[in-house]
Design a protein that fits this description.
By secondary structure, the chain is mainly alpha-helical. The protein has one domain. About 70% of the residues lie in helices and about 5% in strands. It contains 18 helices and four strands. The strands form two sheets. It has a two-stranded antiparallel ribbon with strand order 1-2. α14 packs across α15. The chain is globular, with a radius of gyration of 20 Å. The model has no long low-confidence stretch (mean pLDDT about 85).
Length: about 400
């Protein structure tokens, strides 16, 4: 691992680290803003948690740990009712719950009940859930967003070498120039100060986040499998899904002490790796350093936050689409045959139907991805295999 870190001294790696930061930045800022939390703190913990996750997963996953969007209702609800101290305590308890679930996954060998085709199909659902986020970002001016996406597509098709490798920052830069030429240039400054919070705990706050935490675990497994497939490694054998869950928990506990929502791996990162084809694992440490610098160097952060949402939305629309297509490929390459296996056909049909239903418990939205995966896993283990032409 030391050798890999020492290699991070060339401009290509620095450029790719910056590219990966750009790809994940929009989600970190958008989700944090929706919760009314400190963006500076979120940027800092995205960097710190990415580094921690990298080493706890043996340096084999190029994952970026940002802020989980599943808590956008729960966190403001707790803050409004009890105050930031109880929000901090709830986030810490969510992290503890992740760690407990990670241990259970290992001790009870729970993954033997989850077939690979359901994991891959879960990634398809993750990608489908992300596409609307990109379209919302583009809504201010969809033409600029689509033009940014078109620039990226042209570079992917027509260019080679470094130009193709850096298609993301190039398309974002050109899209931003077009946007500012049309709308003018205005600096954005919505950063807040960072502060250490002394957590407080109560049962209601814990129950509020625990419902969501169970959902995040399934998304964590699906996203880490997706990264592993792109990097061509078996995450379960080389890292251990229990370790990814525990690492996520430790990072969430640390985040809670400065008022940042629980951590989660970002699918934006896996799609960026897929599109660029850049698989030098330790490059993600440079990405983490850029996030940390953003949290402390206000002019740098202000400049990055000024990138138009429409431009980011256009580039993310392409990236999220690639997540779906790559996951479809993984499903087709798994040991199933949709043409003859009626059981699998029925399970996947059920999962995609359940995905589009909105679920609420105690006024909180529950991840439809998690519900779909749980039902799919139960069906796989309960229903006997039935081979016939579909």
């Amino acid at each position: 691992m030391k050798e890999r870190i020492k290699e991070l001294l060339n401009l290509k790696d620095i450029g790719m680290g910056f590219t990966f930061m750009l790809v994940n930045l929009a989600s970190v800022v958008a989700v944090t803003s929706m919760m009314g939390l400190s963006i500076s703190s979120a940027l800092l913990m995205t960097g710190v948690n990415t580094i921690i996750f990298f080493f706890l997963t043996k340096g084999k996953l190029m994952s970026v740990l940002g802020v989980s969007g599943l808590y956008t209702v729960a966190v403001p609800m707790i803050t409004q009712k009890y105050g930031m101290e109880y929000t901090s305590g709830a986030i810490i308890l969510a992290g503890v719950l992740y760690c407990v679930l990670g241990v259970l996954v290992k001790k009870c060998n729970l993954l033997k009940y989850i077939p690979k085709y359901i994991m891959s199909f879960g990634v398809i659902l993750i990608g489908l859930s992300l596409i609307p986020i990109a379209t919302v970002l583009m809504s201010g001016n969809i033409y600029v967003g689509l033009l940014t996406m078109l620039i990226m597509i042209i570079i992917e098709f027509k260019c080679k070498g470094l130009v193709r490798l850096f298609s993301l920052p190039i398309s974002i830069s050109l899209g931003s120039i077009i946007f500012f030429a049309i709308n003018g240039f205005n600096l954005v400054d919505n950063l807040q100060t960072m502060s250490l919070i002394i957590p407080k705990f109560n049962l209601e706050s814990f129950l509020t986040v625990s419902i969501i935490a169970l959902s995040v675990v399934f998304e964590n497994i699906g996203d880490c499998k997706n990264v592993g497939d792109i990097l061509e490694i078996d995450v379960d054998k080389e890292v251990g899904f229990h370790n990814t869950i525990i690492a996520n928990g430790i990072c969430s506990i640390l985040s809670g002490f400065i008022g940042v929502a629980p951590a989660t791996t970002y699918s934006e990162q896996s799609s960026a790796i897929l599109i660029t084809g850049y698989k030098k694992n330790a490059t993600v440490l440079i990405t983490a350093i850029f996030f940390i610098l953003l949290s402390f160097i206000k002019p740098f952060a202000t400049l990055m936050l000024t990138i138009p949402n429409e431009v980011l939305g256009g580039s993310l629309l392409f990236l999220y689409g690639s997540v779906v297509v790559n996951a479809i490929k993984q499903v087709l390459e798994s040991d199933i045959n949709l043409a003859t296996d009626r059981k699998v056909f029925i399970i996947l049909s059920t999962m995609i139907g359940l995905f589009y239903v909105t679920y609420t418990v105690m006024g909180l939205n529950i991840s439809s991805i998690a519900v779909s995966m749980v039902v799919g896993i139960l069906m796989h283990n309960i229903i006997k295999s039935k081979k016939e032409i579909v």
